[in-house]
Amino acid sequence: MGTMIGNLLAPELKELIERRDFTRLREILCGFSAPDLAEIFIDLKPDDEAVLLRILPNDLAAEVFEYLPREDQEQTLRALGTEEVARILNEIAPDDRTALLEELPSAVTQKLLTLLTPEERAIATNLLGYPKESIGRRMTPDYVAVQQHWTVAEALEHLRQQPDKRDSIAQLYVVNEGGQLLDFIRLRDLVVSQPQMPLINLMEHSNLALRATDDQETAVAAFKKYDVTILPVVDRRSVLVGVVTVDDVLDVAEREATEDIQKLGGLEALDTPYLRTKIVEMLKKRAPWLSILFVSEMFTSTAMGYFEGVIQKAAVLAIFLPLILSSGGNSGSQATTLIIRAMALRDVLLRDWARVFRRELVSGFLLGCTLATLGIARIVLWQALHFKNYGPHYLLLALTIGGSLVGVVLWGSLVGAMLPIFLRLCRLDPATCSAPFVATMVDVTGIIIYFNVAFHILRGTIL
Amino acid sequence: MGTMIGNLLAPELKELIERRDFTRLREILCGFSAPDLAEIFIDLKPDDEAVLLRILPNDLAAEVFEYLPREDQEQTLRALGTEEVARILNEIAPDDRTALLEELPSAVTQKLLTLLTPEERAIATNLLGYPKESIGRRMTPDYVAVQQHWTVAEALEHLRQQPDKRDSIAQLYVVNEGGQLLDFIRLRDLVVSQPQMPLINLMEHSNLALRATDDQETAVAAFKKYDVTILPVVDRRSVLVGVVTVDDVLDVAEREATEDIQKLGGLEALDTPYLRTKIVEMLKKRAPWLSILFVSEMFTSTAMGYFEGVIQKAAVLAIFLPLILSSGGNSGSQATTLIIRAMALRDVLLRDWARVFRRELVSGFLLGCTLATLGIARIVLWQALHFKNYGPHYLLLALTIGGSLVGVVLWGSLVGAMLPIFLRLCRLDPATCSAPFVATMVDVTGIIIYFNVAFHILRGTIL
Fold it and tell me: In CA terms, which of A69, A426, B277, B358 is 20 to 30 Å from A45?
């Protein structure tokens, strides 16, 4: 939708900018919604973006600005004059402004704060006072508070006097004289009631609220549990300080999922989208983990060193080594992925460790037996069909491969499942235990399992 | 919060159920919100759940039922009498009812449909008529439609006559005589306007809408792009058929992230939470992929078979094999994770393939050089410190390891990044290309790279 419009329109806009035909430009642009305009703007140079923002009406300019990616916002701010920056910053929604200001270098943030009207500055500095990643940083003070002793008519009159609140005000919040949150009223109930009805009759008897200092993850969980689109936010003394809407939380939930996925893949979570991340930045997120994994994996060489004699005697054992190790790594990756996601969704809690252990004990054993069957079949079949000659002791070799597979897959499943739980127990993020990390751990122990099984089964024959 | 209440309360409730003290039970239960009650109910036996649901007032019973996990809903339905099932089914929100009915065996669904009033049955069968995973299945027909020639007073009168719409009606939808969606009006604007004002003055000039037959992923993307909490849904002829709220989409977004994560981990996505999935079900999701990976990995044995002679001559090469292969797998896992997530978030599109290729070419090469440096340092250091004697040609061996690492890591990054893009090009889900799958591919080719580099560098010395 938007992207298509952007692709079609961008050349025409560029031409009009060059011709300085601002009347026509304004006409065209005002025909689009802010999100569509934002998509069009992304394809333009920052200077052109600045020109277009300047000719838009105040409120539309601010709205488009809110929809721009962070990077474009920063570049556009630089391209705009002080007066226009002030115009836009004063107009954009407080929660989006916080999100922008918290990302900028603090000197820039300070400078931008001076451009705000005293009233907006108070709001901005207040929101910036909440800890990073807290609900306070995502909330907006655009809510309507009413007193419990009011009538419907008084509440409606109060509503008429409110400056335009852009966010949906489907709910009005009932507070006492001290501003403490008591309850809420649905706008709909207000609308269909008699004017002289006391508000107290419409109250929903719910004091559900978020704490401004709580982590944003709490908000995600609360929105999911209570299936609501907006929640009030209170401070330590239960005073209503703002509201959070679920669309802001959708971003938080998505960012968390991305972080978990990237950590699971064995790298630090990126701060920006893939294509917008500088290569140097990306290497900083990838190289350290890759190096840590590499250094850990060096223990495989140490372990293998002990078995160098065995390999010299029976090079055929080396041939099956990657197969055995990767099976342990894969089953570990499955288990760790399942448990990390289940813990993120609170399906698995610390106290469930024994249940997880039992499940993986059974699953790992059965999965190991499945692969062992395949592995044994392969050796016996290849020997029978003369694809390859594993020598007179090929059945013992098949047994070695099968036995090792059961051991390695079982071990991989257990390590993969228990490691995230162990990390949570140590109050660390379970997602730091990436799938590659589990694979590396399983590789080192897998070598020991494999050569020990081989030593016991093949001693006196090919060893 | 809720869980704590549940833990404290469950024993007391059980006792009251045994004593059949329904008056006291009803008193206690009515003091809680529906989501909290649902958490309390989960800890009870289905029969007890049924008893409690029976004593709750109609609307609260239905609301609590909506918040129960799918499994509990099914068990409770079985424990309830036909009359109570009808009572609850007729009362719960249409979108939640669809979600329940679509999961049940079709015979049960048919039977339940007969319990609905003709009006509710029409709604239910209509919603079930939309394809699985479509927006139609997640929408509710609880919206308020107004005509564009009405005045504010007429709209408010219409609102008063509506049966109780539980979902927030922060927006009213303007339709023409044929029911086609024209625009929307904010309830707030309606409330603060003069009664004789024509609605046409309040219209928002936005025809933003979802299509009922579109995939639910489209809805997630639209809510993210437009930062709204509710969107109207239209059919092929632009007729308004329902609304979707963002809280339903939050669940969809989460389920999609879970699916992607589980596929990335190398297994089929589970249909139910980990601890609630039967072991047999879980094995069905894990064993096939593990077996496919195992069979693919068998090519490593084939590839190694070609180099059996080399290994016999220089067993030291086998010692470093797991280190080299795992480095390729890890860099591939990083790249594939980054690209799959970026594609899911639409940060990377098909047309970006060349940019991705160039980025991974540079990153893969630099990452390979990093690991090569570590690998070479390790061999030289161990030799110098007499930890291990790699023989007179240890420098050539170090060079072999270093060269192979650059090749394998570069190759792993490229394969990991390009494979998801290739799958999307073939109109397959990029997430089917799991990290373990990339690792397997890189293992087979990694063996070939390693032994070829070794052959060229070490020929005439230890080979």
Answer: B358
Question: Beta partners for A459?
Answer: none
Least confident segment among A40-49, A135-144, A283-292, B187-196: A40-49
Q: Which chain A residue lies closest to B436 (C-alpha atoms)? A: A330
Residue found by looking up tokens 């997602």 in the block:
A431
pLDDT mean across residues, chain B? 85
Gap between the Cα atoms of B176 and A261, Å rounded: 46
Q: Given an 8 Å threshold on Cβ–Cβ distance, is B342 in contact with A273?
A: yes
Compute CA B36 distance to the chain's CA centroid, rounded to the nearest angstrom: 25
Residue A263 has pLDDT above 80, yes or no: yes
Whether the pLDDT of residue A358 is over 90: the answer is yes
Three-state secondary-structure class, residue B147: strand
Given CB atoms, is B440 within the 8 Å cutoff of chain A? yes
Q: Check whether A20 has a pLDDT greater than 50.
A: yes
**How far does CA A23 lie from the centroid of its chain?**
43
pTM of the model: 0.73
**Which chain A residue's Cα is nearest to B162?**
A192
Size of interface A-B (CB pairs under 8 A): 376
In the predicted structure, residue A34 carries a pLDDT above the cut 60: yes
Token reading at B21: 């003290």
Subunit contact B371:A331, Cβ cutoff 8 A? no
B283 in contact with A, Cβ within 8 Å: yes
Contact B86, B61 (CB under 8 A): no
The CA distance from B362 to the nearest CA of chain A, in Å, is 8
- Give the distance, in angstroms, between the CA of residue B45 and the centroid of all CA atoms in the same chain: 30
Chain A hits for B253, CB-CB cut-off 8 Å, are 250, 253-254, 257
CA torsion B269-B271-B273-B277 (nearest 10°) is -100
Give the DSSP letter string of B254-291.
HHHHHHHHHHHTTSPPPSS-GGGS-HHHHHHHHHHHHH
Max mean pLDDT range (A99-103, B146-150, B224-228): B146-150
Contacts of B337 in chain A (CB under 8 A): 261-262, 264-267
Are residues A333 and A416 in contact, defined by beta-carbon separation less than 8 angstroms?
A: yes
* Range scoring the smallest mean pLDDT among A109-123, A144-158, B296-310, B403-417: A109-123
Which tokens sit at B345? Answer: 């978030």
State the Cα–Cα distance between residues B38 and B64, nearest whole angstrom. Answer: 5
- Which one of B316, B338, B343, B380 makes the best mutation probe of the A interface by having the most chain A beta carbons within 10 Å? B338
Of A188, A261, A322, the CB nearest to B325: A322
Is A450 in the B-facing interface, judged by CB distances under 8 Å?
A: no
Structure tokens given for B7: 């833990």
Q: pLDDT confidence of B3, banded at 50, 70, 90?
A: very low
Q: Write the DSSP symbol of residue B215.
A: B
Task: For residue A229, give the nearest of B246, B251, B273 by CB distance.
Answer: B246
Q: For residue A88, what pLDDT is reported?
A: 83
Cβ atoms of A146 and A175 closer than 8 Å: yes
Beta strands in A328-413 (DSSP E): none
Which tokens sit at B198? Answer: 């024509």
Tell me: pLDDT of B161 over 50.
Answer: yes
Per-residue pLDDT tens digits for A61-101 = 888 888 887 778 888 888 887 888 888 888 888 888 887 88
Enumerate long-range contacts of A14-21, CB under 8 Å, 24 or more apart: A14/A44, A14/A48, A17/A48, A17/A51, A17/A52
Q: Is B379 on the interface with A (CB under 8 A)?
A: no
**Closest Cα of chain A to B126: distance in Å?**
24
Q: How would residue B7 be classed by pLDDT, with cut points 50, 70 and 90?
A: low
B381 touches chain A (CB under 8 A): no
Average the pLDDT over each of A120-124, A403-407, B174-178 and give the range with the smallest value: A120-124
Under 8 Å between Cβ of B259 and B269: yes
Residues on chain A touching B356 (C-beta within 8 angstroms): 274-275
